[in-house]
Amino acid sequence: MYTKEFEIRWSDIDANRHLANTAYINFMSHTRMGFLIENGFGQKEMAKNNIGPVVFYEHIYYFKEVFAGMPVKVSLQLKGLSEDGMYFEFVHNFYDHKGRNFASCEMMGAWIDLKERKLTKLPEELFKNLNGLQHTEDFKVLTKEDTRKFGKKPQDIDPSEL
């Protein structure tokens, strides 16, 4: 399982003196990027392929408070991947210094062509590298329909209401 260890800094704490929501998001992003960089998705490679990752959603589940003073570990596993690598879903778990799971997150995203500004498939080599990440027990092959499973759509307002 891919993991990163973090020290909780003063800036990671919120008004309740426990780990702030923004810190969870930053720790997950750092963990994902660590894996990606170590597996051929560095800035140079992504620029060469003209791609970048985009996040559709991050659903975080909090089980227990965690406070400064001890390191925490964040894991990364692959929960889903489309056949062409365009869509991906990750699971992050947060563990305290005793290995207790205090939070979990499901995150879905895709790859975007940075010139066309449209979603794109992954080159074969990068697909293999991403698919090499440890899979969750409930791993599935993703389709476009999986990205719409929550039924959320934009709801514009009349500009006069602004």
In terms of topology, how is this protein built?
Blueprint (H helix, E strand, L loop, with lengths): L1 E5 L14 H18 L4 H7 L1 E12 L9 E11 L4 E9 L5 E13 L4 E2 L4 H8 L3 E8 L20
Parallel strand pairs: 3-7
Antiparallel strand pairs: 1-3, 2-5, 3-4, 4-5, 5-6
Major sheet: 7 strands, mixed
Portion in beta strands: 35-45%
* Residues in helices, as a percent range: 10-25%
Mean pLDDT: 97
Q: Low-confidence spans: pLDDT under 50, at least 5 residues?
A: none
What is the rounded Rg?
17 Å
Shape by Cα distribution: globular
Task: Output the helix-strand order.
Answer: EHHEEEEEHE
Distance, first to last CA: 47 Å
Pairing-aware structural class of the strands and helices? alpha+beta
* SS summary, helix count: 3
Count of extended strands = 7
Keywords: Hydrolase
Pfam family, one: 4HBT_2
InterPro entries: 4-hydroxybenzoyl-CoA_TE, HotDog_dom_sf
Protein name: Thioesterase family protein
Task: Report a brief summary of the structure.
It comes from Autumnicola patrickiae. The chain is of the alpha+beta class. 20% of the residues lie in helices and 37% in strands.
What does this structure look like?
With 162 residues, the protein is α+β, with helices and mostly antiparallel strands. It has three helices and seven strands; from the N terminus they run E-H-H-E-E-E-E-E-H-E. Strands 1, 2, 3, 4, 5, 6 and 7 form a seven-stranded mixed beta sheet that branches. A hairpin with a 4-residue loop joins strand 3 (72-82) and strand 4.
Core attributes:
Thioesterase family protein, 4-hydroxybenzoyl-CoA_TE, seven-stranded mixed beta sheet, globular, hydrolase, alpha+beta, 162 residues, HotDog_dom_sf
